[in-house]
């Protein structure tokens, strides 16, 4: 199914069907929808909240938390790599001068 041709993918999240049109491939959209559905169902089973809006908000907070943690980890890794590259560059330059 090619979304650029105007096809619509129907996904189901937490018991509600949504028509989705996107510029990316349908399998990716399905995976994202399954992830969101899974988060909402996890929240539903782990709390006494039964409002679908509140479940969606709690799932969104949970997903945002995961995103922020991943970004922070990525920043830390990049900073560590940059420091190592700088140290290696310094060592190489020192050895080239000898």
What does this structure look like?
The protein has 98 residues and is mainly alpha-helical. 68% of the residues lie in helices and 10% in strands. The chain has helices spanning 26-46, 52-97; strands at 9-13, 16-20. A two-stranded antiparallel ribbon has the order 1-2. The longest helix has 46 residues, at 52-97.
Structure in a nutshell:
This protein has 98 residues and is mainly alpha-helical. The chain contains two helices and two strands.
Radius of gyration: 22 Å
How many helical stretches? 2
Name the helicity range.
55-70%
Strand order in the sheet with the most strands? 1-2
Shape: elongated
Order of helices and strands: EEHH
Poorly predicted runs of 5 or more residues:
none
Number of domains: 1
Characterize the largest beta sheet: strand count, sense, and whether it forms a barrel.
Answer: 2 strands, antiparallel
Class inferred from helices and paired strands: mainly alpha
Kindly report the average pLDDT value: 91
What's the β-strand tally? 2
Spatial separation of the terminal alpha carbons? 62 Å
Strand content: 5-15%
List keywords for this structure.
single chain, 98 residues, mainly alpha, two-stranded antiparallel ribbon, 2 helices, 10% strand
Note the topology:
Layout: E1 9-13, E2 16-20, H1 26-46, H2 52-97
Antiparallel strand pairs: 1-2
């Amino acid at each position: 199914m090619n979304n650029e041709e105007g096809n619509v993918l129907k996904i189901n999240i937490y018991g509600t069907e949504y028509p989705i049109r996107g510029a990316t491939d349908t399998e990716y959209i399905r995976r994202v929808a399954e992830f969101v559905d899974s988060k909402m169902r996890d929240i539903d089973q782990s709390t006494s909240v039964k409002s679908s809006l509140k479940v969606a908000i709690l799932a969104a907070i949970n997903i945002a938390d995961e995103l922020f943690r991943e970004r922070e980890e990525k920043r830390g890794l990049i900073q560590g790599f940059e420091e190592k590259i700088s140290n290696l560059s310094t060592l190489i330059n020192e050895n080239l001068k000898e």
